[in-house]
Amino acid sequence: MSISSFHPPKRTLMGPGPSDVNPRILEAMSRPTIGHLDPAFVGMMEEVKGLLQYAFQTKNALTMPVSAPGSAGMESCFVNLVEPGDKVIVCQNGVFGGRMKENVERCGGTAIMVQDAWGSAVDANKLEDALKANPDAGIVAFVHAETSTGAQSDAKTLVELAHKHDCLAIVDAVTSLGGTPLKVDEWGIDAIYSGTQKCLSCTPGISPVSFSEAAQKKISNRKHRVQSWFLDMNLVMGYWGAGAKRAYHHTAPINALYALHEALVILQDEGLENAWQRHQNNHLALRAGFEAMGLNFVVNEQDRLPQLNAVTIPDGVDDAAVRGQLLNDYNLEIGAGLGDLAGKVWRIGLMGYASNQTNVLFCLGALDAVMTEMGANINSGEAVKAASAHYK
Amino acid sequence: MSISSFHPPKRTLMGPGPSDVNPRILEAMSRPTIGHLDPAFVGMMEEVKGLLQYAFQTKNALTMPVSAPGSAGMESCFVNLVEPGDKVIVCQNGVFGGRMKENVERCGGTAIMVQDAWGSAVDANKLEDALKANPDAGIVAFVHAETSTGAQSDAKTLVELAHKHDCLAIVDAVTSLGGTPLKVDEWGIDAIYSGTQKCLSCTPGISPVSFSEAAQKKISNRKHRVQSWFLDMNLVMGYWGAGAKRAYHHTAPINALYALHEALVILQDEGLENAWQRHQNNHLALRAGFEAMGLNFVVNEQDRLPQLNAVTIPDGVDDAAVRGQLLNDYNLEIGAGLGDLAGKVWRIGLMGYASNQTNVLFCLGALDAVMTEMGANINSGEAVKAASAHYK
């Protein structure tokens, strides 16, 4: 056996994440590693916390990156807030609500499921009914931006309902952070987690989280120890907490945090509102292209995420063949359907650095060419023109 | 608020990890991100598994990197193998045995502690007594290379004892992998975890693990679901398992895995035995220097780890002042004592890429200069000479 260094192909990443990474971030990631208790590193940690507070629009002191991917960020919210016997209302309208249910049950809690169709937003009325039927529930959990369908739910209204019924609200913002309006304090979100590889266009592997004072209080007053040592916020905060003295908990992923720092500096420099506007603008251009081509969106217009565009695959078109040709001939990755939507939809990401005019036009042109070659029933040659017109 | 890009100082990392990272690895980490289901990435994953099997000296099919730091690798071994009510014998001779106890208890198990002095190896006789006294124990856990003290335990003998009493053996190899002989299959280890930031001299953030067939069988036959969704090996293997079809579990930390791949290629190219020999050789040079200076090792000669050298701080020397001056004036990081040894010892790492002649001589020279300036009672000017002589 003799294995050589790995040199990845250069892809354009327009799936559900990871998205294209800004070269500034890749360069930052390759800077020299220093110690996790080095004063220079501790200073950088403080900046990361401040920048995350800005990105989340919160003043929560307990705002920090979990040293593992978004799935671990999700788990950190549930293991810290759910105790054995707790009842949690979980709104599901795609894959990730199902994962929330798994988390609740593995913490010894009971998940009351509120189901909506995949591709729909969470229905506030159904949540209210569930809250009324379960006055002993203590937590409501839902996904703000469903990565599996491209649907956006009205987080503000859902959190209000949770609070009205004395519940804390856990929100999945993996795909929304940095790409679409998200206001943790204004909306009163109690626990939120995200990922680095979506609209922050950073490398995958880290999960920003934030907990409100009410959530922190619940964590401090738990009856049982948090079942995960690695994700126990009581311990993690000894390292990430304010103050000069940092207690060793685990070895932080130093270079991945350089990357996150750079990604957040880029977001700060662009301005959050400008980033949201850019995502919306490129989404509208892509939409114009898809409509001209004759492809239909999965999600109703008012609930669509600008950064994740799920479109129905036309009848007779071979899903895997199209994605394979895009990857092999165009070095372009788009996303397949997940779960109930597997084989039925494509998911086109316009996230962070990847949300730009070049990517929109390149993707539409490539998809048009591949489908036309396969004899698909689309309006060949119209998509790029329509999208270009949007930018004029 | 306006925060700028972070440019870390260039340190020499000779603490307990992270250790100096080979520039080849930093460069690999900055290569373009591709998708976690991209066929090119899946091919690289297979190579990482093969290279890890080589590093661990195992044919275990379930050998892979956990997408989080060593602490999560530890937790992945315990949450998968320990069920509520299980009795686990934990040998403790430093900080990390204590963390194992925490893990056992958070899984609902009972930890039977076998205590040895910090700085000593685990006493096989004490383990045997505990095994005889607890015939219902199902697992033995111990640390092969205690990062908090620099003591190495006789893993082969301890695993044999565990098996003789029908127990599985969980081994912490965070600091041993790649630095000192470790033979998973020959010694019969059932579950093992390590870290990337020690003797693989990679960036921190990933934890290689390996499970024997017996361990896999126990995981498949569990009565209760694994309490962590993120670390559930039954699910993780859907993504990392062999076969063309990879099921999405979580988004892999793509670039961190490029780095690990490169680190393992470097280890392969050097050869495992050569790497062990290099660590031993540089350790002997450092030892010659410390002895000439008049510093004493914490650990008995036969139990010393070559890659982590704990020495007693001479009376009257201000621990924090010395480490502070080394960092500020020499950009040199050495490790402080942990737990019971805080303020009493320094820990000098010679791990992976950092285990080289330049670092040995630089560290001895800097420590000599700083302590001499502070008026410490050492044989000033002798250390570098003695270590240099070793290399001649």
Overall morphology of chain A:
globular
Which CATH top level class of the largest domain in chain A fits? Alpha Beta
- Pair of chains with the largest interface and how many residues each contributes: A-B, 81 and 82 residues
The major β-sheet of chain A equals: 7 strands, mixed
Structural classification of chain A: alpha/beta
* Radius of gyration of chain A using CA atoms only: 21 Å
Number of domains of chain A: 2
Q: Helical element count of chain A?
A: 14
How are the strands ordered across the major sheet of chain A?
2-10-9-8-5-3-4
Which spans of chain A have pLDDT < 50 for at least 5 consecutive residues? none
Number of DSSP strand runs of chain A: 13
- Percent strand of chain A: 5-15%
CATH topology of the largest domain in chain A: Aspartate Aminotransferase, domain 2
CATH architecture call of the largest domain in chain A: 3-Layer(aba) Sandwich
N- to C-terminal separation of chain A?
Answer: 56 Å
Helix and strand run of chain A = EHHEHEHEHEEEHEHEEHHHHEHEEHH
Helix content of chain A: 40-55%
Quaternary state of this entry equals: homodimer
Mean pLDDT of chain A: 96
What does this protein structure show overall?
2 copies of one chain form a homodimer. Chain A has 2 domains: 23-269, 3-Layer(aba) Sandwich (Aspartate Aminotransferase, domain 2), CATH 3.40.640.10; 272-391, Alpha-Beta Complex (Aspartate Aminotransferase, domain 1). Chain A contains 14 helices and 13 strands. The first copy, chain A, has helices spanning 23-29, 39-56, 70-81, 95-106, 124-133, 155-164, 184-187, 213-220, 233-240, 254-270, 272-293, 319-330, 357-373, 383-391, and strands at residues 12-14, 62-66, 87-92, 110-115, 139-143, 145-146, 151-152, 168-172, 191-193, 207-211, 308-312, 332-336, 345-349. By secondary structure, chain A is of the alpha/beta class. The mean pLDDT of chain A is 96. In chain A, the strands form 3 sheets. Chain A has a 7-stranded mixed beta sheet with strand order 2-10-9-8-5-3-4, sandwiched between helices. At the A-B interface, helix 1, helix 2, helix 3, helix 4 and helix 10 of A face helix 1, helix 2, helix 3, helix 4 and helix 10 of B.
